[in-house]
Amino acid sequence: MLAATVRVTRDLDAAEEAVQDAYVQALKTWDRDGVPTRPGAWLTTVARRNALNAIRHRQVLQAKLPLLLGPTETAMAEPDAIPDDRLRLIFTCCHPALAQEARIALTLRLVCGVATPDIAQAFLVSEATMAARLTRAKKKIAAARIPYAVPSVEELPERVDTVLTVIHLLFATGHTAYSGQELVRDELTTRALDLARMLRLLLPADREVAGLLALLLAHHARRSTRTDPDGRLLRLAEQDRTAWDREMIAEADRLVVAALEAGSPGRFTLQAAIAALHAQAPAYEETDWPQIRTLYDELLRIWPSPVVALNRAVAVSMVDGPEAALAEVEALERDGRLAGYRYLPATKADLLHRLGRDAEAAEAYQAALALSDNATEQEFLAERARSAAAQGAVGGDEGGR
Amino acid sequence: MTQYAVLIYERVAPEDLPPEIMAAHEQLPQRISELGAREVAGLALLPPETATSIRGDLVTDGPFIETKEVLAGIFVVEARDLDQALAIAKMTPIVNGGVEVRPLLGFQVAEQS
């Protein structure tokens, strides 16, 4: 509804106002006359009429105010035009000219309808800060005239990538909350999954869209097993695989296979393939590590990020042993780009522990602990540090696994 | 139509610009109009060594920030929206540097008296 109304106003604030007024009118009218057969269409029609009236009103007041960007549409939206409108709204919110944090916040606010205080909470900033951030982004959309449109074919790959990145970040933010008490913020992961599903309906031919949806599904399928009943973090090896959502994993698998068969895979498809392999393994030891390492090699080639290199090192440790992986992790440490990234010392600690170098492992766990703001994660790392220190103290040289 | 300034930043001094870049600059207005947009004005700046800066009462002989990339020129276009302005900005011939696109608050040319 908001999307259809923005098409009239070309102004996000005005559209939100018109939609809110429509709800107020609905409460009054429906109470008196009963709920119409198509409440959604009724609301959309009223919201758009409100928007047009508001525009005319403003035009009379300030004839020269350049609020109207381009020609207005007076025709009512056809029901099947709405998905396209939502797609336009997503692309507007995820325009590369906006700061990344603003893209996520705007998508949550305008596409998912999440209230500003909730967004502020998810990003651990004050409501005023988030409101200011949203206002700034909306102002830029209006002032720089970011179009309310799906980009042209030439621009589409780059722009779809921005949208996919935002959805992935939304999911990641919810999957392992940056800080706070809870490990998972279900609302964010669910919203991200909804968006990925919607995008898949709107762009069915895009393989990376399929890849992202598969990636989210493969992770989401494991959500209930990531902590024990006491809320403690469980590692992949410790999770109860029988509790994973098999239907979701199967769906992810179908999407990955189709995307892989369609041609050379992009980064989301490769990540989805890795996640799907993890999800399919009947036991941690039976994971197809050589295949995962091959996928990481390809991922690193098309997306040379140090985080990918770190994750690849874990696969290397399972294929070639912890010694080989440790060398790669130490190289990444010297590289410096991951300074402050808690998973670097955490991975190093795990490798050191497997090599029986527990005193060093304890140190690395402490380093990871110092970088984490999430209570669940902190507790996990503190426990690992204590246990490694104890083993190190009794001369765990023959330790390892 | 909205007016945008395209700010050109270069690491190459104007006198060292290769001839093909100069030729591409000359063809730019034509290419912009082929997109249905219009170049309103163009300004080419002399190198930063010629600049004089004023901050408050202090007058000094150049930019304060030591930077290898300098503002080399500006042109103003009228475009449909930011995406069209970005498409135009991408056509700007650049040797070693980049461009920045900014919507204009106003654009005035003094009348000749």
Largest interface: A-B, 13 and 10 residues
Radius of gyration of chain A: 25 Å
Helicity of chain A, as a percent range: 55-70%
Derived structural class of chain A:
mainly alpha
Can you identify the CATH class of chain B? Alpha Beta
Here the CATH topology of one domain in chain A equals Arc Repressor Mutant, subunit A
N-to-C CA distance of chain A: 57 Å
The rough form of chain A would be described as elongated
**Number of DSSP helical runs of chain A:** 18
- Strands side by side in the biggest sheet of chain A: 1-2
CATH architecture of one domain in chain A: Orthogonal Bundle
Q: Rounded to an integer, what's the Rg of chain B over CA atoms?
A: 15 Å
Which structural class is indicated by helix and strand composition of chain B?
alpha+beta
Family (chain B): Belongs to the YciI family.
InterPro entries (chain B): Dimeric_a/b-barrel (IPR011008), YCII (IPR005545)
Protein name (chain B): YCII-related domain-containing protein
Keywords (chain A): Sigma factor, Transcription, Transcription regulation
Give a description of the structure.
- The complex is a heterodimer of chains A (401) and B (113).
- In chain A, 67% of the residues lie in helices and 1% in strands.
- By secondary structure, chain A is an all-alpha fold.
- Among the domains of chain A are: 1-62, no CATH class; 83-145, Winged helix-like DNA-binding domain superfamily/Winged helix DNA-binding domain (Arc Repressor Mutant, subunit A).
- Chain A has a two-stranded parallel sheet.
- Chain A is elongated, with a radius of gyration of 25 Å.
- Chain B has a single domain, classed as Alpha-Beta Plaits (2-Layer Sandwich).
- Chain B has 2 helices and 6 strands.
- In chain B, strands 2-5-1-6 form a 4-stranded antiparallel sheet, covered by helices on one side.
- The longest helix of chain B has 16 residues, at 19-34.
- Chain B starts with a strand and ends in a 10-residue tail after the last strand.
- Classes of the chains: A mainly alpha (401), B alpha+beta (113).
- Chain A binds chain B through residues 69-70, 95, 97, 143-147, 149, 151-152, 155, and chain B through 2, 4, 80-83, 86, 101-103.
